[in-house]
Design brief:
Length: 480
């Protein structure tokens, strides 16, 4: 019988949720539901597979005792013909449970597959589609379980991951929603959360519970054909490696999952230490949003203070700076270059760059400081010393508005960019080259293109200098 015909034959009177046996899974879901804010919505990702179907049924059962706003959300990947059947099953289950359902259709492009691979590209697009449903304070529930956790630990170990990778999937974490890039500016109760209530529950437990409820494959849940293909690493671990391990060690999946849980606790302690060390090496007031780039930030670290730390602590701090902000983490070679700067600072400006699919980061060494600059537009425009026409106009406008706010009693001025050979006459100092004035103001070379000058209209003499980091910080000799 095909999946489509099985769906058509689904009974309109499903097994009673009220008769669901008390189980470890139900206890876990009930506790997770009780921990949510009743003022916000719990979104349950429903793929149509056994795991997500059972999570939806368990949540509906728990909500009878702990009322919450539940919504199901299904992502149609458009990657295989069976996706239409998965959507039909999701709609039928939502109707049976009496829960509202949102369906998101993906349009994955070939470029994403080539750069990230099918698994990674589909996973990232799916999470983005699910997250788009959320408002601040909502939670998104995923049905990953103990066996998934064991597979993730093994995958990351085979990739050479460190402690954070071996800690696998956290039971919950903050999610980015709306216009808050990191969520750090929101109070805890207002942040969206990703929650995995079943991480301590095995796939076998879910199958047993489904059998007790009289559920069966094809009628009540679907099996994704791609899950059988062992050309995908996770499927190879699932169908070949883990069964072999459990043939020798029957509790292998549970033991691996418990190891991940212990590593999560240890990683949280390392994060606390890293945050304390970062606070000591970060220069006060150094983080700011770069004008014209809402998703571009700069942070400055003291090279001397970093040099007082051991090399492992240096790596811990540098990685934590990126991980805590969602920035791309430096590859091993880039990290080695940064540590070489710390040990032996070069005489001139030095820089290293790296990127992820969504953002890029450049670190520059200048005057005993590491200047970190991250941008989410780098993959399209590059992260160089220039600015786009839009940014240039914005800088011009800000400089003019700032000049007007001064209410300066000067002749009519024209505000624009500096020109080669520009000089400025200062009281008690005479004529000074603009390059030297920028150096004296500690404005880094890669930011000097942002300088704006006010020229007296009648003779083009420079009467003031403006920079977004300093405002109109320098005025010319009135008699000049």
């Amino acid at each position: 019988m095909s999946l489509s015909s099985s769906l058509d034959s689904m009974s309109s009177s499903p097994q009673s949720l009220g008769e669901m046996a008390e189980s470890r899974a139900l206890v876990a879901v009930r506790a997770a539901l009780a921990a949510t804010d009743s003022r916000h919505t719990v979104w349950i990702a429903l793929s149509g597979g056994l795991d997500s179907v059972m999570l939806a049924r368990l949540a509906a059962r728990a909500a009878q005792e702990c009322p919450r706003r539940l919504r199901l959300v299904h992502v149609h990947h458009g990657l295989q013909a069976a996706n239409d059947d998965f959507e039909r099953l999701a709609r039928r289950l939502a109707s049976r449970l009496g829960l509202p359902l949102s369906v998101r259709h993906l349009a994955l492009d070939e470029a994403a597959f080539k750069s990230r691979g099918v698994e990674a590209a589909a996973r990232e697009a799916r999470l983005a589609a699910l997250t788009a449903c959320l408002a601040a304070g909502d939670s998104l529930w995923l049905a990953q379980h103990q066996d998934d956790q064991a597979e993730t630990l093994l995958l990351n170990a085979l990739r050479g991951s460190g402690g954070r990778g071996l800690a696998a999937m956290p039971p919950e974490r903050a999610l980015t929603v709306g216009n808050s890039p990191t969520g750090r500016d929101l109070p805890p109760h207002a942040r969206a959360r990703l929650v995995r209530p079943l991480l301590d529950v095995s796939r076998r437990d879910l199958e047993t519970l489904a059998s007790q409820q009289g559920l069966c494959v094809s009628r009540d849940w679907c099996e994704d054909p791609s899950n059988l293909s062992q050309r995908f690493d996770r499927n190879y671990l699932r169908h070949t490696v883990l069964p072999a391990l459990e043939g020798r060690w029957p509790q292998a999946a549970g033991s691996l999952a418990r190891s991940a849980q212990q590593l999560q606790e240890e990683q949280s302690l390392l994060d606390e230490l890293a945050a304390e060390l970062l606070a000591k090496v970060r220069l006060s007031g150094a983080e700011r949003v770069t004008p014209g780039q809402e998703q571009e930030q700069e942070v400055q670290l003291s090279l001397a203070r970093l040099g007082e730390l051991s090399e492992p602590r240096q790596r811990l701090v540098l990685r934590h700076l990126c991980q805590s902000r969602g920035w791309p983490v430096p590859p091993r070679g880039r990290l080695a270059s940064l540590q070489q700067w710390i040990a032996t600072p070069p005489d001139s400006v030095a820089e290293v760059r790296w990127h992820s699919p969504v953002s890029s980061l450049v670190v520059r060494l200048w005057r005993g400081q590491l200047w970190w600059q991250v941008s989410d537009t780098v993959t399209r425009h590059g992260l160089g010393d220039g600015v786009s026409d839009c940014q240039r106009r914005e800088l011009d406008d800000r400089a003019r508005q700032s000049w007007q706010a001064l209410a300066a009693q000067e002749d009519e001025v024209v505000i624009g960019q500096r020109q080669p050979g520009d000089v400025m006459r200062l009281a008690d100092r005479g004529r000074r080259d603009l390059k030297r004035l920028l150096q004296e103001a500690d404005i880094p070379p890669w930011q000097r293109h942002q300088l704006r000058v006010a020229r007296r209209a009648r003779d083009q003499a420079i009467v003031a200098l403006w920079h977004p980091a300093c405002g109109w910080w320098l005025r010319a000799n009135p008699s000049g």
